[in-house]
Request: fold
Amino acid sequence: MARVYNFSAGPSMLPEEVLKKAAEEMLDYQGSGQSVMEMSHRSKVFDGIIKDTEKLFREIMNIPDNYKVLFLQGGASTQFAAIPLNFMNGSGKADYIITGQWAKKAFAEASRYGDARAVASSADKTFTYIPKTKKEDFDTEADYVYICMNNTIYGTVYHELPDTGDIPLIADISSCFLSEPLDVTKFAMVYGGAQKNVAPAGVTICIIREDMLGKARDITPTMLNYSIQADNNSLYNTPPCWNIYITKLVLEWIKGLGGLEAMKARNEKKAKILYDFLDSSKMFRGTVIPEDRSLMNVPFVTDSDGLNAKFIKEATDNGFVNLKGHRTVGGMRASIYNAMPIEGVEKLVAFMTKFEQENS
Ligand SMILES: *Cc1c(COP(=O)(O)O)cnc(C)c1O
Reply:
């Protein structure tokens, strides 16, 4: 059976090497006589897996020792509540930048727990750009400033972080996790669900500076309390063992390719192929202003809904699947995460070129 090129925003493609390795080890993980799905999370074998995964994360992302790496559940969306519950406990204020649906949802959740303020927004132009902010825009009393680093639905990314001065900066990096080097020391916390760039859905990785811990509100559910999770090395209860194991395989794959600098070069090459085509096409165009374009999610449109629908159908028939844009935007979106091979993008562009010739 031929595998398709899956352009889904998430869950998305995993590297074929990782899937093959997981298949190989499915029935008997390294002589344990069982699969990782079946073994106790308190076993020595699994202890090795979770420790290796954390070690690889620290190595590949260059995470300093004063940060905790947590493997949690509930997806990125659960952190929308956990973040205010853990950190909105000084002034009870937090500043949010609204760059799309995910930032909006995080903001709405924080508003239930405290004085969340929307400092800036790009809603006026359907989130097609990253709003500029100055240090003075932020409330110096705020417990944190929150951003969504890569906006999966709209295809924008922060190429330059907002200057928040001494206010802790927290970022949702779900859709740009491990796609390029990231200076973790600029953040009090970064986190993301796995299903875009790291592993199957089910594990959420939270990287938190230690001085942020220990401030959770009394009402914080135990499972959402980052200090408790950190004290228990993510083993307060049964963690998503299988997903942590796949995370390890993906990290090994990234390391084998040369780490995050190599991922960045690869991702830039893929994105350039697609953006160059969109910029030269008379039928298709990208929707995001060039300086804020994401390397991971590329939304594009034609001028006709009928043509968009025809394109999506014919693309699907030709093995390019999940190219339909998010329901709030319409048009198309190609998500080209780490696992999308370069030839997937080259073939997509060849298909788009042919479609344009045949339909104009
Ligand atoms: C997909 C996504 C989410 C939602 O993740 P869940 O794990 O489904 O809760 C949040 N933020 C961003 C940036 C995303 O891409």
